[in-house]
Amino acid sequence: MNNSLKGKKIVLAVTGSIAAYKAVDIASKLTQADVSLHILLTKEAAEFVTPLSFQNISRQKISTDLFSSEDNAYLQHLESTYDADAFLIAPATANTIAKLAIGIADDLVSTAFLAATCPVIIAPAMDLNMYDNPSTQSNVKTLQKRGVIFAGPEQGRLASGKVGRGRLMEPNNIIDLLKTTLGAYGDFAGKRIVITAGPTVEHIDPVRIITNPSSGKMGFALATASRDRGAKVTLISGPTYLETPFGVTKIDVKSAKQMYTAVLKSVANADILIMAAAVSDFRPTNPHTAKEKKSIAKLTLPLETTEDILASVPDNLLKIGFAAETEDVERNATSKLSAKNLDLIIANDISQPGTGFASDFNQVSIIDRKGIITPLPLLPKSDVAWQILDVILDLNP
Ligand SMILES: Cc1cc2nc3c(=O)[nH]c(=O)nc-3n(C[C@H](O)[C@H](O)[C@H](O)COP(=O)(O)O)c2cc1C
Fold first, then answer.
1. Taking the domain 9-183, which CATH number applies?
2. How far apart (Å, rounded) are the C-alpha atoms in residues 342 and 321?
3. Architecture, CATH, for domain 192-394
């Protein structure tokens, strides 16, 4: 299972902002992630998006009236917050933020907020002047001091046509922040993980390089899964086109030497190192400072080996390596595991079509120090990441 939201009880409160329509998308994404969703709307929110939209997405009756006698709306909505895992207000108006800061409880959202004991995430959306207003700023600070987490707002184009801070955080980022918040209770909570990803690049001359087809997808999937399970993640990545996972600290490197330096610095405070990067084994001994002309007809390129990163990392943390092989996969991986004193090695056969480099899927075997081999079927890289973390957890990092 690679869905950390599955089965979580989330209250989604929607208030009267022009951005309320984006809450429909958030509700839909949370429903697709098998969240047990309870939705609250202010009366003003219902001016922007009809309760019917939310009702159909969540298959629950939506009430906006605190005093509705129907279905005991007050008690039913209040109770939904008692055992919630998180309370998300998106979008949150200046008005609702002000009410929450001083404890007014005059509608379903503000009443339920006072009753909530779970983590609260507020995603404001308003005009930039409304957000910058000292009253709003003071209310935000008051709530932050009490432990409320603020998601944005982001800079961008606002409904007024102005550009500034006040835009609702992108729904995907709000959901990632929700996952990160819930991760505090995950099985990797408090663990610090350093993950490397992507290719490295070694220059032959200013315009020519030695690199490899690694896309970084496996390392990025591991970073996302680790974050969702509560780890504090540092991702050291060679050049990729992938978006940095929300909540993950990314260090960009190019050469094997830069990756070596970044890894040795980052592991000083880490519990686990996962080397999923495809680090070049060789680099030109004397890279040319000027572009080499084609007219030289023949170019001989002396190469030297690059730093052995895994072998240089101290043994006081768990070390997990990857072995991309084309033949004798498990035997070669096992000898790499012992040569570099690793705790686990993830072997993949990159000669198989549809797996390994650049693919969204991977077929790997996880090998431990005792030689126990756990072969996994062909799976999306996000599932492979989740399963690798399960095995790491068994080693009590
Ligand atoms: C068209 C329109 C758009 C609005 N957009 C926002 C907004 O984005 N953010 C905000 O804080 N208030 C906005 N307001 C003002 C709120 O709707 C108003 O303060 C309302 O009382 C908020 O109620 P609630 O916080 O109970 O949902 C808007 C009002 C209108 C009429």
1. 3.40.50.1950
2. 7
3. 3-Layer(aba) Sandwich (3.40)
